[in-house]
Structure formats: structure tokens, C-alpha cells
Amino acid sequence: MALDVQTQAFYEEVIKGSDPDAPAMHERTPEDARTYRAGLAALSGPAPNMARVEDHTIEQSDGSFRIRVLVPIEPPAGVIVYYHGGGWVVGSIDESDTLGRKLAERTSCAVVMVNYRLAPEHRYPIAVDDSYAALEWAAAHMNEIAGGEVPLIVAGDSAGGNLSAVMAVRARDRNGPEIAMQVLIYPVTDANFDRPSYLDPENQLLLTRDSMIWFFDHYIPDPARRTEPDASPLYTEDLSGLPPAVVLTAEHDPLRDEGEEYAQRLEDAGVEVNLQRHKGQMHAFFALLMLPGSERGMQQVVRAIRALVVRFAHANR
Predict the structure, then answer these.
(1) Which of 129, 158, 164 is nearest to 58 (CA)?
(2) Which of 216, 213, 236, 237 is nearest to 226 (CA)?
(3) pLDDT per residue over 141-174, tens digit each?
(4) Which candidate, 2, 156, 11, places its Cα nearest to that of 84?
(5) CB atoms inside a 10 Å sphere around CB 82
(6) Which of 45, 56, 198, 257, by CA, is between 20 and 30 Å from 278?
(7) Active site residue 26
(8) pLDDT (tens digit, 9 = 90+) per residue, 76-110?
(9) pLDDT tens, 204-223?
């Protein structure tokens, strides 16, 4: 199936048509790539009002990073720790603010947005360590955020999906916060650039094979370290005992095959998996809030989270 009509028009007019001579992602500097990414995020449209918005700073031994707590108007039924995408090189909680607010409004959950530090200034495993520190912070402050014990969910798109998957494993292995669900939106789970979905010319759209190589070169320059489970969760030997997973993949995405393989490995390990390949969509469709494909992805996520919080409420009556 080709790209859906709206996505094709967006790609032709906004991505390619706005500046036909613009360099590709892998030809840009990280600074230039961040500016370009911020411009796309500005197209997200109006953001829902929240009952409360709080910015906090989490101190690490080698620096600090920000988080933002978005509390919806309805009493929070859960807490979602959200990790933004951007190949660990671009993106921020400011650019993902509208997405976080819509997720909070639609799920009636508080959303903790994590501004983990970016490469190449802060290379692997700093993003992983920041992400886990944010998860621990959210668990420790659940009462202040949600007014009581509610389900704790990790979620993220692309590189953020990678970090979400890693958080689920790390929390299990370290007896850390109890995670009720992991939401993996076209996640990076491997560093193999020769999968069929990577090599398919029809998938070289907003994200390309070359740009993924560029991201990994900035994030983990040493190829030998890219197979560490904290970098590529597909290399985790034991995936049993992990929380239920919601996995979204896009038909025209270099990351499609590895996301679906990770979902299969989770299922083989006895983990409940809700996998959907979104037809006619390209990488980043979930975050392109102005397009209908984003709404279909949001519906999958919202239904799963709402079902979870209802089960939790019934179990704790």
C-alpha cells in the first residue's frame, strides 16, 4: 500500500517542497538538524489546557536534565513517563509538549515528559541513565502527581520507544518501579541497517537508512557497543516477566521490521502484546498531529491505556 493521500501531500509539500535544495538529515550538523526538527514540531497545532504544568530539574552526578509534568483537568488515572523521539540527537520536551498534552487529555493520565540529554554532546549511555532517573522520580512522586497509587506506564516514539523498552527491562532487573505497560511507538530495537525495511526504497522518506546511520554515529560511535541490550533491546536474552506492550509500527518505515521482531520476541516470552502495523504511514506519523494517521495511532494507544486504568481501578476497589 502506498502512503495515504494526506501523508503523501504533506511529504511532497512540507518536507520536500518547502526547500528542494535543503540538505538531507545525514548531511546536517546536529545543531542544524535540531533547528529543522523544531520547525516541524511548530506545525502541531493548538495544545489542550492542563490543570497543572510543572517543570523540574533532575540532578545527575555528571549534570542535569529537565522533566515536565502535565496533569490533565480530570483526576489522573495513571502516570505516563514519555520519552520523545529524535534519534537521541534531536527533539525536546518543548517540541513534544502538544503531543504530551493530547496524550494526557485523551487518556486522563498525567504525563511526565523527559528531556534526556542528547548526543553527540552526551553520548550513550547518558540518555538511558537520565531516562531511568526520570522513571524513578515519577514513581517516587506519584502521590503528588496523581493523588494516590495509579498505574505507571512508559511510552515513547522512535528513539523514545527504544528508551521505553530499555526502561521496562531495567526496572525488572533492578527491582525498580513497577511498570504496568510499555508503549513502543515505531521503536528502535536494533542497529542492523540491512533489514528489508531498511533497504526498501519506498521507505526512504522522513527517516532514511542514511539518517539512522547518522544518528547512531552520534549516539554510539563504537559499533561494538550497539549490540548492548541498553542500546539495542533485541539483544536482551530474557524478555519474560515484562509488562504488557503496545507496539505501533509504520508500513513505510526503515524501523518496521525490528519493531515487529521485538514484538514477536516479547510474545514468545509470554508477554501480552498489542501490535498494529499502520498501513500507508511513514516513520514519525504518530507525532505528526496534523495528519489523520496520527489520530489512528493515538486511538490505539488511548484504548489500551484506558483499558489498563479501568482494570486497575476495578482491582483496587
Answers:
(1) 129
(2) 216
(3) 999 999 999 999 999 999 999 999 999 999 999 9
(4) 156
(5) 29
(6) 45
(7) no
(8) 999 999 999 999 999 999 999 999 999 999 999 99
(9) 999 999 999 999 999 999 99
**Alpha-carbon gap, residue 296 to 314, rounded angstroms:** 27
DSSP E strands: which ranges in the chain? 52-60, 63-71, 79-83, 110-115, 152-157, 181-185, 245-252, 273-282
> Is 251 in contact with 296 (CB distance < 8 Å)?
no
Q: What is the 8-class DSSP label of residue 140? A: H
Q: Which of 84, 253, 257, 278 is catalytic?
A: 253
Among the listed residues 84, 122, 252, 283, the single catalytic one is 283
How far is residue 274's CA from residue 282's CA, in Å, rounded to a whole number? Answer: 19
**Cβ atoms within 10 A of the Cβ of 261, count?**
15
Integer Cα distance of 297 and 304 in angstroms? 11
The whole-model pTM stands at 0.98
What DSSP element (H or E) covers 297?
helix 292-315
Cell triple for 264: 514477536
Q: In Å, how far from its chain's centre is CA 35?
A: 20
Q: Per the structure block, which three cell numbers stand in for 65?
A: 536534565
| Length of the chain counted residue by residue | 317
Catalytic member of 96, 131, 158, 197: 158
In the numeric block, which cell numbers belong to residue 174? Answer: 533492578
| Active-site residue flag, 19 | no
C-alpha cell at 225: 557497543
